[in-house]
Amino acid sequence: VQLQASGGGLVQAGGSLRLSCSASGFTSDYYAIGWFRQAPGKEREWVSCLSRADGNSYYSDSVKGRFAISAGDSKDTAYLQMKNLEFEDTAVYFCAARHGFCSGYLSEPNWGYWGQGTLVTVSS
Hints:
This protein is mainly beta. It has no helices and 11 strands. It has strands at 2-6, 9-12, 17-24, 31-38, 45-51, 57-59, 67-71, 77-82, 91-99, 113-114, 118-123. Strands 2, 4, 5, 6, 9, 10 and 11 form a 7-stranded mixed sheet that branches. Strands 1-3-8-7 form a 4-stranded antiparallel sheet, with no helix packed on it. The chain starts with a strand and ends with a strand.
């Protein structure tokens, strides 16, 4: 399984950005895509995840109502639409994947596949 994240960039506070994650190698829809982020000087934290099998999505409290995770037309693509970005959203964003569902498996050790990060910088 390979993951490729893209879409990061520089955006002003209040702006929007869409990240993409391309996942290759899964042979069924029984897997989940997750987004994590790591801000400068901080530990990596979970942001959102989508279970492809049942379509359920989950968000951390810090992004709920501003971010939306979705599956692309291609079953191997997922997006993270980020709106009303805040300076505190500045971080390297990573997409990750795991077999099965994501509910109940939000911590990093539960995610076996990782893509490279994409940098999101929000200017205040």
